[in-house]
């Protein structure tokens, strides 16, 4: 029994000494760090995500997901200028990525560049392989509504719901638009 305890302790000590397996390819390692960072952001922990995203950018300076993540971290911290800069860099790194374009559109909208944001949301929606165009359409609707353009907002919400009828953010926005219309 004592031998098993010693053998187990040695196995544990050796296992701890070697640490986690890290991919030797910098791109794979950056993907891993960026993925972990984005997961933390999704879990509501943007500051905890920062070191993972920074590490991804140390490995690959133009990693689009890490740049997008850093933009979201900056947004959460209230730094709109840094958020927009990170999102611009992400688009430079992945100009045809629907999710990257969508986040850039959000940053443009928050910075008051509504026309540019609406154009970027259209590009995101049309991006080949983008699996969630209803997200970009709903964000475009929110942006248009924020700028006092309810007719554009209604059009984009209708498009989003045509693609994904059960998409709750679009359904909620449609209800809001209908209530506002009824109040007039």
Biggest β-sheet strands, sense, barrel = none
Considering DSSP H and I runs of 4 or more, what fraction of the residues is helical?
A: over 70%
Overall radius of gyration: 21 Å
Termini gap:
81 Å
Topology:
Layout lengths: L1 H17 L7 H17 L3 H14 L4 H13 L3 H14 L4 H13 L3 H13 L6 H14 L3 H14 L4 H16 L1
Helix pairs in contact: 2-3, 2-4, 3-4, 4-5, 4-6, 5-6, 6-7, 6-8, 7-8, 8-9, 9-10
Entry summary:
This protein is mainly alpha-helical and 184 residues long.
Structural commentary:
The protein is 79% helix and 0% strand. The chain is an all-alpha fold and 184 residues long. The longest helix is centred in the first third of the chain and has 17 residues, at 2-18. The model is unreliable at 1-19 (pLDDT under 50). Helix 5 (80-93) packs antiparallel against helix 6 and helix 6 packs antiparallel against helix 7.
Features:
184 residues, mainly alpha, 10 helices, elongated, disordered N terminus
């Amino acid at each position: 029994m004592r031998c098993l305890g010693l053998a187990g302790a040695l196995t544990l000590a050796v296992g701890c000494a070697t640490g986690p397996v890290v991919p030797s390819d910098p791109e794979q390692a950056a993907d891993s760090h960026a993925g972990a960072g984005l997961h933390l952001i999704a879990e509501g922990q943007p500051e905890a995500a920062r070191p993972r995203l920074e590490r991804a950018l140390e490995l690959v300076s133009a990693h689009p997901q890490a740049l997008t993540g850093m933009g979201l971290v900056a947004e959460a911290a209230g730094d709109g200028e840094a958020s927009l800069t990170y999102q611009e860099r992400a688009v430079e790194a992945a100009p045809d990525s629907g999710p990257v374009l969508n986040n850039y559109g959000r940053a443009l909208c928050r910075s008051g560049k509504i026309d540019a944001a609406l154009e970027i949301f259209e590009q995101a929606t049309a991006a080949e392989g983008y699996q969630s165009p209803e997200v970009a359409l709903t964000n475009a609707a929110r942006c248009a509504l924020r700028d006092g353009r309810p007719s554009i907002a209604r059009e984009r919400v209708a498009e989003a719901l045509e693609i994904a009828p059960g998409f709750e953010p679009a359904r909620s926005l449609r209800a809001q638009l209908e209530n506002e219309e009824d109040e007039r």
